[in-house]
UniProtKB/TrEMBL annotation:
Organism: Lotus japonicus
Ranges in a coiled coil: 90-117
Protein name: Uncharacterized protein
A GO biological process held by the record: vesicle docking involved in exocytosis
GO molecular function: protein-macromolecule adaptor activity; zinc ion binding
GO-annotated cellular components: endosome; HOPS complex
Length: 151
């Protein structure tokens, strides 16, 4: 059984795709449902276009921009016929790859920050442990940071 939002979008698509888009935007707390609704609209937009293949692809790519990043080119590719030329999607595919590259760079930076943070915590813990032990006995930890204090 379809949810009320799905039913509303399906009915709106019979009248006006803009109305369906407005209904899909009403869903704010469920990202999966929102994406599902936008995919319903995307499928309708791709299948209903009567222009040339290139015009349909341009309209579909323009539609992607209206989804504010919710849908990507790979989400709507299955709605096109198998014989569509990849050249027609070149710009959208390159844009999508650039977005993924930016996300990867950001994740790599976050991983480096986390690694440096872990190194700092490890060094600090070792230093405190060493100082607490050294007050009673000389330090025997290899490469201990306290060696530089007392040498």
């Amino acid at each position: 059984m379809m949810s009320m939002h799905e039913e509303a979008v399906a009915l709106a698509l019979q009248v006006d795709p803009e109305l369906a888009m407005a209904e899909a935007d009403k869903v704010e707390d469920d990202e999966d449902l929102r994406k599902k609704l936008w995919l319903m609209i995307a499928k309708h937009v791709v299948e209903q276009e009567k222009g040339t293949k290139r015009e349909n692809i341009r309209k579909a790519i323009a539609f992607l921009k209206e989804t504010d990043g919710l849908l990507k080119i790979e989400d709507i590719l299955p709605f096109f016929p198998d014989f569509a030329l990849i050249d027609d999607f070149k710009e959208a595919i390159c844009s999508s790859l650039e977005d993924y590259n930016k996300q990867l760079e950001q994740l790599k930076e976050e991983m480096n920050d986390a690694t440096h943070g872990a190194d700092n915590i490890s060094w600090t813990d070792g230093f405190i442990l060493c100082l607490s032990v050294w007050t009673f006995l000389p330090c025997t930890m290899p490469n201990c940071p306290c060696d530089s204090l007392y040498s």
